[in-house]
Specification:
The protein has 342 residues and is an alpha/beta fold. It has three domains: 7-50, 434 Repressor (Amino-terminal Domain) (Orthogonal Bundle); 60-155 and 294-322, Rossmann fold (3-Layer(aba) Sandwich); 162-288 and 327-340, Response regulator (Rossmann fold). It has twelve helices and twelve strands. The strands form three sheets. A six-stranded parallel sheet has the order 2-1-3-4-5-11, sandwiched between helices. The protein has a four-stranded parallel sheet with strand order 7-6-8-9. A two-stranded antiparallel ribbon has the order 10-12. Helix 8 links the parallel strand 6 (181-184) and strand 7. The radius of gyration is 26 Å and the shape is elongated. The structure holds guanine. Residues 74, 76, 147, 160, 190, 192, 221, 247, 275, 292 line the site of guanine (GUN).
């Protein structure tokens, strides 16, 4: 391993004490201009970078933030992480990102690794069965949950209103006259997927529309999962005329399944997604979906966490941000023409 340049090297070359080098680097007063110039010249020549690790050990805290998420290749999460990073960067903090694959053991192992770096805080999207923060292991830094919050967690959290988003979809489809409605539910071990389905089923029950068990197909939050689940649904008799896909990647897989079966969206099957990813407006037809404020969730969570790092001790905050149905062209109205124009 290469040896790092330290303030000791700089002090030796400049013929001054380590203390003087620190004073120059920290911009404290009391060092002559000539000495300052000499130290800065050596710093530049050696391309010296102060060690965050050494600084962290002295202060028992670094300017690092840990971010633990399920999977950065899930296209919903980059926006959320970007929201965290933009706030962190502006405030002089840097991120370390870890993917858990929704595995609580991997999550805990990353959590413990991050703790050993003395972070200022850790932001976690917890997996089902998560144990991070269950004990006092976060006493030396701030901990924040985003997107999901275990029921035992009494600290800060920033979430989207997934249940209401699901409810908006159910209400919209039933108001468009749909009765043969189905769903691709996302993994039942993920809280956000369960919340969306709860709201969706509530809306269908309110409209007295039945949702047979076989019309709910579970799938991982990805395109392949959406494709396979939609093929299962669209080859059933009777065939559902609408699919609520609980993420946009699932909806894109469902659109591909519609094409593979030589059906048409929305003429034969209506499809609604959830997320409102950037490319969901560009599908053919453009996707009706639920917007969730991923970027805002990330930036707000980071702001609240950094407020805590700086000593804010107001009561615990659980922020639930609104979701909103974005109506585009992937749902067909089954209402009689007379009713539509009213
Ligand atoms: N969209 C796809 N996967 C997820 C997830 O885990 N959480 C949220 N909020 N949205 C998603």
């Amino acid at each position: 391993m290469k040896k790092a340049i330290t303030t000791k090297h700089i002090a030796q070359l400049a013929g001054v004490s380590v203390g003087t080098v620190s004073h120059v680097l920290n911009g404290s007063a009391g060092v002559s201009e000539e000495l300052q110039k000499r130290v800065h010249e050596i710093v530049r020549k050696l391309d010296y970078q102060p060690s965050q690790l050494a600084r962290g050990l002295r202060r028992r805290s670094t300017d690092l933030l840990g971010v633990i998420i399920p999977d950065i290749t899930n296209p919903y999460f980059p926006k959320l992480v970007r929201g965290i990073e933009d706030v962190a960067y502006k405030e002089g903090f840097r991120l370390v990102l870890c993917n858990t694959d929704n595995d609580p053991a991997k999550e805990l192992s990353y959590f413990n690794d991050l703790r050993s770096f003395h972070p200022a805080g850790i932001i976690v999207i917890p997996s089902e069965g998560s144990t991070v923060g269950k004990d006092s292991s976060h006493r030396n830094f701030e901990l924040m949950f985003v997107d999901r919050s275990p029921e035992w967690w009494a600290g800060d959290a920033v979430l989207a209103n997934n249940e209401d988003g699901g409810h908006q979809v159910g209400r919209y489809l039933t108001r468009m006259g749909h009765k043969l409605i189905s769903a691709i539910s996302g993994p039942s071990h993920i809280e956000t997927a369960r919340d969306r389905m709860r709201g969706f089923q509530r809306a269908l029950a309110e409209a007295k529309v039945k949702l047979p068990a076989k019309f709910i197909q579970e799938a991982p939050f990805n395109v392949e999962g959406g494709f396979a689940a939609a093929i299962r649904l669209l080859t059933m008799t009777p065939r559902p005329m609408a699919i609520f896909a609980s993420s946009d990647t699932l909806a894109i897989g469902a659109l591909a399944a519609v094409r593979a079966l030589k059906l048409r969206c929305p003429e034969d099957v209506s499809i609604v997604g959830f997320d409102d990813l950037e490319f969901s407006e560009l599908t053919e037809p453009s996707l009706t979906t639920v917007f969730q404020p991923g970027y805002h969730i990330g930036s707000l969570a980071c702001q609240l966490l950094l407020d805590r790092v700086r000593g804010a001790d107001h009561p615990t905050e659980k922020k639930i941000l609104n979701t909103e149905l974005r109506i585009r062209h992937s749902v067909r109205s089954l209402l009689p023409a007379r009713k539509r124009s009213r």
